Amino acid sequence: MGSQQGSTLSTNVAGLVDGSSACREVSYDDSLPVYVKELIAGGAAGAFAKTAVAPFERTKILLQTRTEGFQSRGVYQSLKKLLKQEGILGFYKGNGASVLRIVPYAALHFMTYEEYRVWIINNYPSMGSGPVIDLLAGSLAGGTAVLCTYPLDLARTKLAYQVVDTGGSLRSGIRSICAQPAYSGVKDVLTSVYKEGGIRALYRGIGPTLAGILPYAGLKFYIYEELKRHVPEEHQKSIVMRLSCGAMAGLFGQTFTYPLDVVRRQMQVSYIYSC
Questions:
Q1: Where, by residue number, does the polypeptide cross the bilayer (predicted)?
Q2: What is the value of pTM for the model shown?
Q3: Per CATH, the architecture of 2-269 is what?
């Protein structure tokens, strides 16, 4: 229950910019190339939103992975415990990796969505240009962005998973086979994991991630476009209306694929090597 609450709270904001169509329509200086506009929109909005919801994102990870001391707590109690044990900065542990990831992730999502959409329309004209195109293009764009940025997502999870107790020692979740190593930062996670298991270790959990992101990204674009079609024409350019449609689309997509997100997090933090 607590982890689902954490997901809902963070999705309401992050779902708006994590490759969403709402930000895709923000206008910028016409002198800039289209891909530069998309990089600015996706990167800046994504970094801002991830930082805004970082406390809820970290709480969600701790609840999903059943980290010691957080298994039976809800969102509010978990936030209080984190504040007491790690201070304000504890809310943002792993957020650096999240921001490093969301900038290229959102940019890739924006750009490849348009490219996939045009490619599908040109190569399969019989499909028309309706919501099915948005569903397919969104799924392909989401899968592409995930594949290119997954190691940073792994690093974000492993850093957020480490909780420093009042005695200064690290605690890890009950699902690890043996004690997790202590990571000092993004670079340390990536180099340590690579030394332990090579490229495959950096992509541990990619299966359920792709299984979740393909329908999630596709549904998000599809629902957003469908909701927008029902908005009166005089309100379609309203940023509030676009954000509202984006929030509802992201919330539905996240809820639908949430079980796979739990599987992904638990696979990311499991330590499969011999102690």
A1: none
A2: 0.74
A3: Alpha/alpha barrel (1.50)
